TrEMBL record:
<dbReference type="Pfam" id="PF15617">
    <property type="entry name" value="C-C_Bond_Lyase"/>
</dbReference>
<dbReference type="GO" id="GO:0016829">
    <property type="term" value="F:lyase activity"/>
</dbReference>
<dbReference type="InterPro" id="IPR039480">
    <property type="entry name" value="C-C_Bond_Lyase-like"/>
</dbReference>
<keyword id="KW-0460">Magnesium</keyword>
<keyword id="KW-0479">Metal-binding</keyword>
<dbReference type="InterPro" id="IPR011206">
    <property type="entry name" value="Citrate_lyase_beta/mcl1/mcl2"/>
</dbReference>
<protein>
    <submittedName>
        <fullName>HpcH/HpaI aldolase/citrate lyase family protein</fullName>
    </submittedName>
</protein>
<dbReference type="InterPro" id="IPR040442">
    <property type="entry name" value="Pyrv_kinase-like_dom_sf"/>
</dbReference>
<keyword id="KW-0456">Lyase</keyword>
<dbReference type="InterPro" id="IPR015813">
    <property type="entry name" value="Pyrv/PenolPyrv_kinase-like_dom"/>
</dbReference>
Length: 385
């Protein structure tokens, strides 16, 4: 898979000092997980499912999920499974431009059923998203994927979703996360990333996040996210990539609070009207949440609308400044402090080293922008303004 592959070569040259690399989806899991970007979910009941998967991949989505869980009513489940199998059998990895294609299955039996139905010759399926993952029940999910990988003769990947009461409620949180960490390590060669189910978490308290707020304003959920990152995203060998929770709004509405986007970057790029469009579609709050995801050790994001993809990917590209700071930090094994080449900060060569390594990984997946190119430039191109 390759990000921004749908942009013209001239546009890529203008935007990027180093264009995004093609990612080997059979290669290193940390590289693939970093490259997930915006993972777009779609209901398995869509009558045009196969065609939509191809269309969204052609538009630059590199990670897609066919949803058999919350997006499908119980009485439509059999129809949805049949549609999923038919769509997977119609497609191969080239049809979706090398994008990763997952199924969110309700239970391990669905994994076994789908893999048996599609047969070992189907190349479009990359793996499964595992909802409501717990230490008690998660092992059966992972064993089903391991068995399917053997039967299909290739690695199928797992992305567990953490959203259960055992993780949300404080009295059980630490012991549950420690047990999940041990379980995931036993299956480390197939666990691609850990996803966060913030909607289910909110539901346990009768909360629905307002579109004027980010998930980090909902304190009970923010506390759970913090604990997940603490247990599972450490930069030693015990860590996994954690992906950001879904942003669920996409239509116009009357605003209660002021927009979250400053006017200056858009005025400098003569994109004031574009900023107004982003604000009217609630994408300013999404951009803010993506920035907060990154600040809290989270990469990529679950999305449910195609309009969200450009925002996530524009903020995923590594800026010219970030890249040169990372290179400066990594070029020496010694400690100490040195001024950034941009003369606006100090780079501490010890504490910032893990950040620098992760930045170089992200640069491989999403590229490095040219000097003077901002997320506004990327977003306007990706959104087709």
């Amino acid at each position: 898979m390759q990000h921004f592959r749908h942009l013209d070569a001239a546009v890529l040259d203008r935007l990027f000092l180093r264009a995004p690399k093609q990612i080997d989806t059979a290669g290193d899991l940390s590289v693939i997980a970093t490259a997930l970007g915006a993972t777009l979910y779609m209901p398995a009941t869509r009558p045009d499912l196969a065609e939509t998967l191809v269309k969204r991949s052609a538009e630059g989505v590199c990670s897609l999920v066919i949803d058999l869980e919350d997006a499908v009513a119980d009485h439509n489940l059999e129809e949805a499974i049949t549609n999923t199998v038919d769509s997977l059998q119609k497609l191969d990895s080239a049809d979706v431009f090398g994008s990763l294609l997952f199924v969110r299955a309700r239970n391990p039996e669905q994994i076994r059923r789908i893999c048996k139905s599609i047969g070992p010759g189907t190349s479009s399926l990359s793996g499964f998203v595992l909802p409501k993952f717990t230490a008690a029940g998660g092992g059966e999910f992972l064993d089903a994927i391991a068995d399917a990988s053997v039967a299909h003769g290739r690695r199928l990947l797992a992305m567990p979703v953490l959203e259960s009461p055992e993780i949300v409620f404080r009295e059980t949180r630490d012991s549950e996360l420690a047990a999940i960490r041990a379980l995931l390590h036993r299956h480390r060669d197939r666990v691609l990333a850990v996803r966060i189910g913030a909607t289910d978490m909110c539901g346990m308290f009768g909360i629905r996040r307002d579109r004027d707020l980010t998930i980090y304003d909902v304190r009970v959920v923010a506390d759970a996210i913090s604990a997940i990152v603490n247990h599972l995203a450490r930069t030693d060998d015990s860590g996994f990539v954690i992906t950001g929770p879904v942003w669920e709004y996409f239509a116009d509405h009357e605003r209660m609070f002021r927009p979250m986007l400053r006017q200056t970057p858009f005025a400098e790029q003569e994109a004031v009207r574009f900023r107004q469009q982003l604000v009217s579609h609630d994408l300013d709050a999404l951009l803010r949440e993506v920035a907060l995801d990154r600040a809290n050790g989270i990469q990529g994001k679950t999305v449910i609308h195609p309009s969200h993809v450009a925002a996530v990917h524009a903020l995923s590209a590594v800026t010219h400044e970030e890249y040169h700071d990372a290179v400066d930090i990594l070029e020496s094994d010694a400690g100490g402090v040195r001024a950034s080449g941009y003369r606006n900060k100090m780079n501490e060569l010890g504490p910032h080293r893990n950040w620098a390594r992760q930045t170089i990984l992200r640069a491989k997946a999403f590229g490095v922008t040219n000097e003077g190119i901002s997320f506004v430039d990327l977003l306007t191109e990706l959104a087709g303004r």
